[in-house]
Amino acid sequence: MPIPDYESIMLPLLQFISDGKTYGKQDVVAAMARHYKLTDDELSELVKSGTPLFGGRVHWAIQYMLNAKLVERPARAQVRITPRGLELVKDNPEELNTKILRKYPEFVAWQGKARERTKTETSDASDHTSDTQLTPDEQIERGYTEIRDSLAEELLEKVKSGSPRFFEKLVVELLVRMGYGGSLTRPGEVVGKSGDGGIDGFIKEDKLGLDVVYIQAKRWEGAVGRPVVQAFAGSLEGVRARKGVLITTSSFTAEAEEYVTRIEKRIVLVNGSTLAQLMIDHDIGVSTVTTYTIKRLDSDYFEE
Question: Of 234, 230, 225, whose CA–CA distance to 253 is shortest?
């Protein structure tokens, strides 16, 4: 039988884990293979990158349901159903696909990010262009963007589950990877303890250490407001600093963003979405799985 697509896998997968237990990814793949009565040859079928075709589709079935908050990932390579997922299973749906997932705002927001980044959709959020309406280049771009945005969501969840101290160290390491601190020893350092208005670390802005950028890292769920940013600005005054970076796993209020445009000190605000994208760009907490090279005809070569 043909390998089922990821949409077909979602409902039986959700029903399989509806007992509320935590399952490893390989256990889920094996259970779905039994469900579809796949042969060893079918399970060993690979895509061009060398990864298993069926395993990849199970991964994306899980990923799409993660974005809709139907399942959660309690640990690496593990999956567990959420109360929302249990509620859906109890309704005994006949099918589960992306059209149904779009009733959940978290999934719509995730898809919206992909459309905004690829710019292959119209400005009307209700217009869902099908893959058959996209050029091959656009399909590749959309697929790449969905993978990247899914990875960004995973990164943020992982960062939020870590300790405040780990987050502070992560932020300093990210800034070093971005080129701050130069090549001198101890280009950046975590200092003190987390706390409103405090300084969590600093990093040299250049190789000679002529200026220093101070850092505050906040693992928050709610939006960071102006009082927090104003307190950070005050703490910079205490160390006679002119520059600071305030990084959060959540977002900033409009008042906070407007405040930093009106003060003399230079404070850059980095929200959770930007943080995750920077981590991907600078290989913090991620690894490369495969690389595709797209080639086009070189007309100049054939000119005589």
Answer: 225
State which of 16-20, 77-81, 113-117, 231-235 shows the largest mean pLDDT. 16-20
List CB contacts of 207: < 8 A, sequence separation 6 or more.
181, 182, 183, 184
Side-chain-side CA neighbours of 216 within 13 Å: the count stands at 24
Instruction: Look up residue 212 and give its amino acid.
Output: V
Distance CA 224, CA 257 (A): 10
Q: Which two tokens stand for residue 118?
A: 């690829």
Higher pLDDT, 12 or 47: 12
- Contacts with 259 (C-beta within 8 Å, 6 or more apart), sequence order: 226, 229, 230
Q: Which two tokens stand for residue 90?
A: 């109890």
- Residue ranges of the alpha helices (H) in the chain? 6-16, 25-35, 40-43, 53-67, 83-90, 98-101, 105-118, 136-161, 164-177, 226-238, 254-259, 272-281
Q: What is the mean pLDDT of residues 158-181?
A: 86
User: Would you say 43 and 52 are in contact if contact means Cβ atoms under 8 Å apart?
Assistant: yes
d(CA 164, CA 158): 12
For the record, the structure tokens of 211 come out as 């200026």
187, 188, 189, 190: CA torsion to nearest 10: -170
Checking if the pLDDT of 30 tops 80, the result is yes
Q: Please give the model's pTM, rounded to 2 decimal places.
A: 0.67
CB atoms within 10 A of CB 256: 22
How many CB atoms sit inside 10 A of residue 288's CB?
6
CA distance 88 to 84: 6
CA distances from 14 to 9, 66, 156, 228 (A): 9, 11, 24, 41
Structure tokens of 287? 């690894």
Residues in the chain: 304
